[in-house]
Structures are given as C-alpha cells and as structure tokens.
Specification:
Immunoglobulin-like, mainly beta, 9 strands, 128 residues
C-alpha cells in the first residue's frame, strides 16, 4: 500500500539560454512512504528530459498509470515531427526512451507524450 503524506508542486521558469529561449519545468515533490513506486502513479507524467540542454543523447523519462498505447514524439519549433521515440503498447509504470539529439540541429524542441487520453509536453533544448 502506498501513501503520500505531502505533495508539493512548483513551476520554475528559466531564460538562461544564449538565444533568449525560455523553458518552464514543473517539479512535483512527494514526501511519504511507498511499498510500490508504481502505486503512486495516478496520471500520465513526462517526468524528465536529461540532460537538458543536451549535446548528444538525452533520457526521456515518463510514467503511465495504466497499461495501454503510448506515443512519444519530438517536434521542432515549426511543428514538424522530427523523431518518434515510442509508439506502441506499454505496461503501467515508469519508462525511459532515448532522444538522439546529436542528429538534430541546435534549437528548442517539444517532446510530446500521448497516452491514456492525455497529452503532456516538455521542452528539450539542443546545443552545439
């Protein structure tokens, strides 16, 4: 049985990029005890892209509250799909995919997770 004693959410904006681009990261800190990490997943989460900014490959971490089809797509600033990292059935729980940013031009990209009727996005920055 999992119990979350407290949950804190914070949004941290950043404009520290040389090209003036902005990024916003949402952090959720859960404090408590858990017999199972999967029991704490209650919504579709795109939890991290690391490193970000990236010069090579970046790890895209996400979580699904239930088994089903998931799709992780990367878009450029013009809305064009430049990579599909995941497209198929996955179990409930935490997952990772790899974004090979070495093949992308420097710039800002949108990583989009679609699963369980939800859409979650995060920005990824590629630098050279």
């Amino acid at each position: 049985v999992a119990r979350t004693l407290e949950a804190f959410t914070d949004v941290i904006p950043s404009s520290d990029f040389a090209d003036g681009a902005n990024a916003t990261d949402r952090f959720v800190l859960r404090i408590g005890t858990s017999a199972s990490a999967e029991a704490a997943i209650t919504e579709v989460e795109l939890t991290a892209i690391a490193p970000n900014p990236s010069t090579g490959s970046a790890r895209v971490s996400f979580a699904l509250p239930e088994a089903g089809t998931a799709r992780v797509t990367v878009y450029d600033v013009r809305g064009r799909s430049v990579a599909t990292l995941v497209d198929g059935p996955l179990s409930a729980g935490r997952h990772e995919a790899t974004l090979d940013s070495g093949s992308l031009a420097a710039g800002v990209y949108v990583v989009r997770l679609e699963a369980a009727g939800s859409v979650v996005t995060r920005q990824a920055v590629v630098v050279r």
